[in-house]
Amino acid sequence: MDITAFNTTLDTADLPTTIAGILDAFGERVVVASSLSLEDQVLTHYWVKACQAQGVDPHIFVLDTGRLNPETYTVLAETEQAYGFRYQVYSPDTQAVEALVQEHGINGFYTSVAVRQQCCFVRKVQPLQRALAPYDAWVTGLRRLQSPDRAQLPLAEWDAGHDKTKFNPLIHWTEEHLWAVVDSERIPMNALYAQGYTSIGCAPCTRAIQPGESNRSGRWWWETSTKECGLHVVDGKVVRKKQEGQ
Ligand code: SF4
Q: Which of 169, 153, 181 is nearest to 239 (CA)?
């Protein structure tokens, strides 16, 4: 696929039009990554409808780290029920988790950035690699306004780390726009947002934010620098940080 032409043609298109373009290019060879967040719920809503209109199965995966909030599992089940599809749910490798917990303790991620990244590697990065393996392209709900690291995100890009095309069709969306669509389309929503959460992640590593704090400050709040889990984007490019022992 010509990524430059795709970006030029569809950069300002609406979401259904962009999704149709992705499906035209990749059909069932593309998968959506969902964390059951606000963005991913809106993306899932339009993605499933587009797939159903085109007669293709919606392929959407969730990384079940084993440490998600109960509310996240609830909205997962509610979304399957509402739209009539089944998520591809990936769990971490059992032996890798057991080794991690044996060495660092059940909540060892609080002790250092290195251990936290090791936990994210075992519980997220490795399962992500398995989730993406069968596909030629993947889709995220990342937005430019979420953080400075995401400010230059393109609509489509070559994900060299995973050797696939990657699409970010919500790059121009604002939080207000997302909530308006959730209300108008009655999209199932993670109950954590009503408790002050602005980011959906693992229970021990994500918390509600206080007025005036940035949306990302609820994630890994005890750390002062690194705020990514190794999955996504640095300066507009997908970079998976090397972990110790790799
Ligand atoms: S967010 Fe926390 S619990 Fe989840 S994988 Fe990363 S370090 Fe582990």
A: 153
Q: Does the CB atom of residue 207 touch ligand 1 within 6 A?
A: no
How is residue 84 written in tokens?
Answer: 């009539």
Ligand 1 centroid distance, CA of 53 (Å): 37
Closest CA to 85 of 39, 25, 53, 44: 44
* Alpha-carbon gap, residue 71 to 228, rounded angstroms: 22
pLDDT tens digits, 131-189: 999 999 999 999 999 888 889 999 999 999 999 999 999 999 999 999 999 999 999 99
What is the reported pTM? 0.89
**Under 8 Å between Cβ of 51 and 23:** yes
* Cβ of residue 220 lying under 6 Å from some atom of ligand 1: no
> Is the CA virtual torsion 169, 173, 179, 184 positive or negative?
negative
Domains and CATH numbers, the chain: 3-238 (3.40.50.620)
* Beta carbon of 219 within 6 Å of any ligand 1 atom: no
C-alpha span between 142 and 39 (Å, rounded): 7
Ligand 1 atom closest to the Cα of residue 122 is: 5
